[in-house]
Fold this protein.
Amino acid sequence: MKAAVIHENGDLDQVVIDDIPSPECMADEVLIEVRAAALNHLDIWVRRGRPGHELSFPHVLGSDATGVVLETGSDVDHVKPGDKVVINPGLSCGFCEFCRRGQQSECLHFGIVGLSRPGTFAERTVVPGRNVSRKPGYLSDEEAAALPLAYLTAWRMLFSRGGLALGETVLIHGIGGGVALAALQLAKLASAKVIVTSSSENKLDKARELGADLTINYIEYPDVGAAVKDLTHGRGVDLAIDTTGAETWESNFNAVRRGGRIVHCGVTTGARANVNISALYWNHITVMGSTMGSDEDFRQLLAAAKTAQLRPVIDVILPLDHAREAIGRMEAGKQFGKIVLSPRGKEAGLEEAEAARGMEPA
Ligand SMILES: [Zn+2]
């Protein structure tokens, strides 16, 4: 089968399309024909190499996907061949203290499809049966593939960790990335007032179309904390959602109100930062980390998305053969929304996405 793989860690030119053997399905797994697979920043980290994560080469990239079940292992009975499914890429053991508490993304052995096992940028993929759910019928294959990792991450950051309440004000850095856009859409479902930042007026315009209430161009206003205070009449936001890391770290402490919360999920601009401990305790600030989400977060996300008929923002759909170009686009930060690969080619993907937009919800 055709797959986008790397033969060693390195730069973008390591991403190649290879013909590799189709994966085998074990008793607790399902074999899926991939219909659409979405990119995440994780694909870049995996390609470059992450300390502590030894890959078995050639390694298939990709975490998110939708597809059709081709085969189920003997222990899997909640889906059957022919079912359309969406993959939750979070891998957990099911037995540790944290899994038993229902906090699967806190699992001692937590892993991710495409990092801890072969990924989804392929014509077929195998994942544990417990990681597949029925694809939401109102979404196209491409839209459903765009949902899991980014929207699950945003869901947990906003609600399970961030405790977002109706009417609160949220700051979201770097609008245009998958998790940031997901956070914007989901925060608007909760009637939050949302402030977004970007260096691109074009991205800020698009964010306003998606419901962003206030925008900050951080080229024009590099002191984002002060800009947020101006926009909130000196008060600050209730919650800051940060997917970027070191570059925005400090601004959060100025941007949140007294008693405000800051939730982090990524380090695209660096992983090391200084903290002013005085500002932290004097202003009663809470800083939290968050990674993907629990099974219950995923269930709630799919339910809320369906009720609200929420459609993930898609930047572009490209054929699987264009995996390198697709990852390069993300690495350059050119995207607004999710970049999706279609093993069946761009035309088929676009046609289905258009058709799905005119379809009645399931
Ligand atoms: Zn566990």
